[in-house]
Amino acid sequence: MGKGEETRRAIIDQALELASTVGLEKLTIGALAGTTGMSKSGLFAHFRSKEQLQLQVLAEARQRFIEMVIAPAMQKPRGEARLRSIFESAMKQWEEDLPGGCIFHAVSAELDDQPGPARDYLVETQRDYADTLRRAAEIAVEEGEFRKDVDLDQFVFELGSITAAYHHFGRLLGDPEAEQRARKMFEGLLARSH
Amino acid sequence: MGKGEETRRAIIDQALELASTVGLEKLTIGALAGTTGMSKSGLFAHFRSKEQLQLQVLAEARQRFIEMVIAPAMQKPRGEARLRSIFESAMKQWEEDLPGGCIFHAVSAELDDQPGPARDYLVETQRDYADTLRRAAEIAVEEGEFRKDVDLDQFVFELGSITAAYHHFGRLLGDPEAEQRARKMFEGLLARSH
DNA sequence: TGACGGCACGAACGGTCGTACTATTATCAG
DNA sequence: CTGATAATAGTACGACCGTTCGTGCCGTCA
User: How far is CA B157 from CA A182, B160, B163, in A?
Assistant: First the structure.
């Protein structure tokens, strides 16, 4: 790995931390230069536009999510165990990895009315994730762990709602029991699917 | 109502539309001056800082929410009917009133790691709303419509999760069935509380 | 040793941001 | 109708934005 690639990754690391708290728009070249100790122009040269920087930040976040959440789950047994693994890893990652919590949640509201490549990439990522969840639930049905009449899309919707609420109540409103509530809700959703 | 107050309200109207789509930070004095046909300085004089403008926007949104969602529900019979009224009105308002959907949802992720008066006001508003929902559910228990062992805080958490997911799947991912899914989830939550 | 390519730098550009002052115009009570 | 006052416009400011450009450092290899 050349020197350039090395610093580029270091920049993206910092950028992820910053973006998870302040969002993609306020992820500023100048601020990023400050935290990395580089000059604005030196940093900018690694990405040739701010849009590229944003896209690479999202790509890195996606890759980390796959590595830390999806990949371990795929090693688990098919079906419910895999779903539980995804849920647990996701909750853990959002708490520990980034200071501002799940970056996808942080930028979702920011990009939902802002057309462009960043939004497109985010939507693709989220659709991809939804498909993964759907497939995992489908397997649980095939394995006989879930009832045959489980509405898979509805299941994904409700599963997604848990994490959204976890962020809203935990991060914004500061409810210390949000994690416990999310877990309880998850157990309820699984129980209803049996 | 003097002329000043009249234009101030007109400005806030425009500001709400703008903020619901682009957020509170990108709700810019210059852009707002453009859409209202005023000069930057003339508009700025009505609020003496951007922070004041943001707070007044949030206050107006809160008042509208109370008028269009909470107040009508309070005319309804106590208990489940009131909860249904709140849910239905909330879904309707977010669809129709503002182009960017529920402004509270739009700014929640933006402010959740950004201390200041705007965040404080938003948190207060959301806590207030959560209390209202909790109280309505409590009444449903007292009236015998809900089981006595319903966990009220958990109920509020799950109710909140529905609207959060509605925005995520409907607005960001563009799922046309998001509204129907939210309704189905709501019915499920009520049924489990009976 | 000397040329070269990859990296990072400082300076500067045009623009937009929020905000402060001053001047001008519109409103409204006496 | 008039004069006080409120409302708006004009202009300027310093800060920061993304971006461009020219320059120099430094390791690699001929």
Answer: 8, 5, 11
CA of A110 vs chain B CAs: smallest distance (Å): 7
Contacts of B168 in chain A (CB under 8 A): 108, 126, 160-161, 164
Whole-number Å distance between alpha carbons of A184 and A166: 11
> How many Cα neighbours within 13 Å face the side chain of B66?
11
pLDDT digits (tens, 9 = 90+) for A49-62: 999 999 999 999 99
Q: Could you give all domains of chain B from N- to C-terminal order, each with its CATH number?
A: 58-193 (1.10.357.10)
The 10s digit of each residue's pLDDT in A98-108 is 999 999 999 99
* Burial class of residue B101, CB neighbours in 10 A (0-12, 13-18, 19+): buried
Residue B176 neighbours by CB under 8 Å, 6+ apart: B170
Phi and psi at B2, nearest 5°, equal: -65, 170
Tell me if B12 sits within 8 A of B59, measured CB to CB. Answer: no
Q: What SS3 state is found at A93?
A: helix
HSE-up of residue A93 (Cα within 13 Å, Cβ side): 23
Q: Is A112 on the interface with B (CB under 8 A)?
A: yes
* Of the partner residues A106, A161, A171, the one whose CB lies closest to the CB of residue B165: A161
Residue A94 binned pLDDT confidence (cut-offs 50, 70, 90):
confident
Q: Cβ contacts (< 8 Å) between B157 and chain A: which residues?
A: 165, 169, 178, 181-182, 185
